[in-house]
Amino acid sequence: MNKPRTADRRSRLKPVNPLKDVSPARWKTALTCIEPNKILMRGYPLDEIMGRLTFGESIYLLLMGEVPSPGIGSLMEAILVSCIDHGATPPSTLAARNTATTGAPLRACVAAGVLGFGRYHGGDIESCAQFLDTGLELVRKGASYRDAAEVIVLRCHELGEPIPGFGHRFHTRDPRAARLFQMALELEVEGGHIQMIRAVELVAAALPEGQALPVNIDGAIAAVCGDIGIPAEIANALFIISRVPGIAAQAQEERQREHPMRQIDPKDHIYDGAAQRRLPDKRR
Amino acid sequence: MNKPRTADRRSRLKPVNPLKDVSPARWKTALTCIEPNKILMRGYPLDEIMGRLTFGESIYLLLMGEVPSPGIGSLMEAILVSCIDHGATPPSTLAARNTATTGAPLRACVAAGVLGFGRYHGGDIESCAQFLDTGLELVRKGASYRDAAEVIVLRCHELGEPIPGFGHRFHTRDPRAARLFQMALELEVEGGHIQMIRAVELVAAALPEGQALPVNIDGAIAAVCGDIGIPAEIANALFIISRVPGIAAQAQEERQREHPMRQIDPKDHIYDGAAQRRLPDKRR
Amino acid sequence: MNKPRTADRRSRLKPVNPLKDVSPARWKTALTCIEPNKILMRGYPLDEIMGRLTFGESIYLLLMGEVPSPGIGSLMEAILVSCIDHGATPPSTLAARNTATTGAPLRACVAAGVLGFGRYHGGDIESCAQFLDTGLELVRKGASYRDAAEVIVLRCHELGEPIPGFGHRFHTRDPRAARLFQMALELEVEGGHIQMIRAVELVAAALPEGQALPVNIDGAIAAVCGDIGIPAEIANALFIISRVPGIAAQAQEERQREHPMRQIDPKDHIYDGAAQRRLPDKRR
Amino acid sequence: MNKPRTADRRSRLKPVNPLKDVSPARWKTALTCIEPNKILMRGYPLDEIMGRLTFGESIYLLLMGEVPSPGIGSLMEAILVSCIDHGATPPSTLAARNTATTGAPLRACVAAGVLGFGRYHGGDIESCAQFLDTGLELVRKGASYRDAAEVIVLRCHELGEPIPGFGHRFHTRDPRAARLFQMALELEVEGGHIQMIRAVELVAAALPEGQALPVNIDGAIAAVCGDIGIPAEIANALFIISRVPGIAAQAQEERQREHPMRQIDPKDHIYDGAAQRRLPDKRR
């Protein structure tokens, strides 16, 4: 326990008294500089950013270090909006609602929800990014996109694993993925990652049982982030950030509309909110 | 344990077998409707929102039920940006960094950070909202803003409690609060809550030791949210949402730049990021 | 934000640079002293404690500072055992199971479960301790236990609040509470708190609708802890500690027996474990 | 997202309406059966267990399904005691203390602490169990313990990874590990896992820089659990359970002794608790 696994072995040979260990080197942060009456995020005064960059653009600035171009800014907003909520039944949302019904404060509900963004839920963005990178490595070595796609799909098939970024519990065609690809096309940021996922989609559709296995929003985010230079780890952070409003809204609704300590059956609910409607003309 | 404290007492008299208890009434949600290949958030197709509303506007839509007006949308973005990060030393950030140094995944670090948004940290928005409401109640009964402010400030003074929404560990003048009030003025949404907090500021400045006790960002958010109709609980949710990117970025930086299992002294760090700079002209 | 609410106001007037703030006074801990090759918990070498004190006794030592007497040690074990698990339906357990179904690691499931030990769940120990103390204050001023009980029960009744430590979702007679009181009687540690809760029980039973509202395990723990000198805050910590094995076991079972990303309906399960049995003779 | 990665692919082709999906099969639990006024843990009435099994024995019963023999019960207690606390400086403890200083409730501090039981901290039990199993596989195929140990140590060496279960930040000889091995010897439960870790210790000591790299408590728990039939996953759960009292005690001390919103420097503290002492004679 307490053992730095990647640390130099020699350093572990010299036990240190924690009360006497004085590290001369200061640790460093490049994110936000705090001085009296001044807050600089990535060099920009936070009060100058307020009203000039949106929250989505500021998230990009904080994570990536620079103000996004208008096109990349639009994609950031779209990515963050795409995962904002997915109804009452994702397990992370149910963890948050079960915590809310105990009378816990909102932050505890949000924390419980965030802990459920695991391997099967949100984590697919990172797996799909690695999957696409494996294909692009083959392309770089001379393979066509189609051939590379066949290799990496076959590999999943042989391992009995689903294709990362494909398929969905409820949707046979993920409307969020389609919209994100359309925006990437219009904003002219399409690159190798989107080309690769398109090739995988064709290969998957040709599989005997693959016809209804579409790209999901995780796959779309992985491909678009790849093409605009966002590393897989940051794409993963974007998913966490994007779903927190949904977790908070669901926990808040649980607190307001339901009685405490209830037994929450995820299948036993109905939607009683606004009927389907369209954005006002000026927003379209 | 397990006892619904606010539930009807009679219901507790009849013990139920959990395996047989079948609730006929379905529970309800008004947030997001999920159907195959369709996701409606507050009635709007999520793929239609993508690219048309920003993340900040979508957060407002999800929490409040309607698309914000342009002015309120701008304030939403500014509020969310104002708390996005405050450097490496807030205890919630240090909880996240200490979790990161154990090799925990990003979502665990974010959860640990969110749990520190407590009474002294973020929670001041809700306290300040209640504080201002107490003053506005007096105004509604005929008091002037000045007199009402004196009454509620004196009450804090007598209880030995600080004025909610005032004072800061590092800043004698909180640049984020000043900017938010300026935006509220320009966007013409100033109302009773801002008037009340201004009156409290004057009263506080007249106290013998109060001259350097300015409105902080919690106070500014409480007042502005009050004037644009956002309830205190939702304002509290906004703080959680706004700081998650900062927690994620700090945890990510810890994972990337520092060695695992280190001892994190919050005072022992330096900033080595971008020098102070200004937004490009077109963003001003 | 970041503002020490209870701190001296004057200290907040002097903004400090966090990078320069050097606190001369060291902070202190009285729990465990770590030196190279030596771990002293409350003064005792941990390796000497191993095999000589049980885990329950060691928990008492850590929290209270001294090795418990045999009688108090037995009560500690019984208190910790009493809350170890309560089946699959408490919301905290469901939060942990919903987190487990996402593929999250065990520690994340445990954290999500612990967050649900809220006002309605576990938190009743602390409320009941305060409730009994209010009654004992009246006794100290000359009231009889019966009269004091009537006053504090009536107060709950008027506020429309249930009596803390009484009533249960499933049980009309909590077998754990009965056993704990029996042990306190046999070990001769009964004092004012148990007398007070007995008086409250009589008063509650005389209420028109109170006949089936028995002391629950929270109430029993609050009373017994009161009589053996464990403060309410520590009693609350004991509940958290006691239930963690149950949360861990339930999350572990979810991971092993169920498929990932399932929809967990708490009412839809059956018990398929060991049939009712008795401890071997030598353990009775 | 939301996609069961290991589920049958065909099932993902048929989208289901969550509101109509009715699973006919009930899910199952074998841990605790709840009926009105009756709680059976692994078949035993919980009120019968209270006062007859210790908390440590009950944890074994809950996780493993049977009452432990006296010898295994003693080892369980010793394992649980061995990790109960390790002072104020482990990152998980610091995450809990940083959460406590924000004014968060105890359960939030415990959750934040538990989240730090990661790869480098506690997680080594599971890695070491797998490491020893690899060696024992070689023994089963005919290798001597010594040869098997050389193979698996060399493999770590080549990968540049430390030997799981060996080395410690502070201790050159972990007193807890020595005591646990001594108890296993006295209780006559030593088997292949302990033999294997002993062989690894000899091989490690013969490495040029390995002389001060002793078995740590994680290694000892992994080996002893292996020999008494506790799977690696359960051994991991034992670590979480064992450290929760320490996390709770440290967070509680932070709340009681320190002022809120302080900056916690882990190196800047002193121990001011009880001086070294010995257990009373009757406990030795």
Characterize the structure shown.
4 copies of one chain form a homotetramer. Chain A has 284 residues and is mainly alpha-helical. Chain A has helices at residues 9-13, 46-49, 55-64, 70-82, 91-100, 106-114, 124-140, 145-159, 175-186, 192-206, 217-227, 232-257, and strands spanning 27-29, 32-35, 38-41, 44-45, 269-271. Chains in contact: A-B, A-C, A-D, B-C, B-D, C-D. β1 of chain A pairs parallel with β5 (269-271) of chain B, so a sheet runs across the interface.
**How many beta-strand segments of chain A?**
5
Give the helices and strands of chain A as they follow along the chain: HEEEEHHHHHHHHHHHE
- Shape by Cα distribution of chain A: globular
Structural class of chain A: mainly alpha
For the CA atoms, what is the radius of gyration of chain A? 22 Å
Largest sheet of chain A: 3 strands, antiparallel
Provide the helix percentage of chain A.
40-55%
Helix and strand arrangement:
The structure is a homotetramer of 284-residue chains.
Chain A: H1 9-13, E1 27-29, E2 32-35, E3 38-41, E4 44-45, H2 46-49, H3 55-64, H4 70-82, H5 91-100, H6 106-114, H7 124-140, H8 145-159, H9 175-186, H10 192-206, H11 217-227, H12 232-257, E5 269-271
Antiparallel strand pairs in A: 2-3, 3-4
Helix pairs in contact in A: 4-9, 4-12, 5-6, 5-12, 6-12, 7-8, 7-10, 7-11, 7-12, 8-10, 9-11, 10-11
Question: Which features would summarize this protein structure in a list?
Answer:
globular; mainly alpha; 284 residues; 3-stranded antiparallel β-sheet; homotetramer
Task: Give a short overview.
The structure is a homotetramer of 284-residue chains. By secondary structure, chain A is mostly helical.
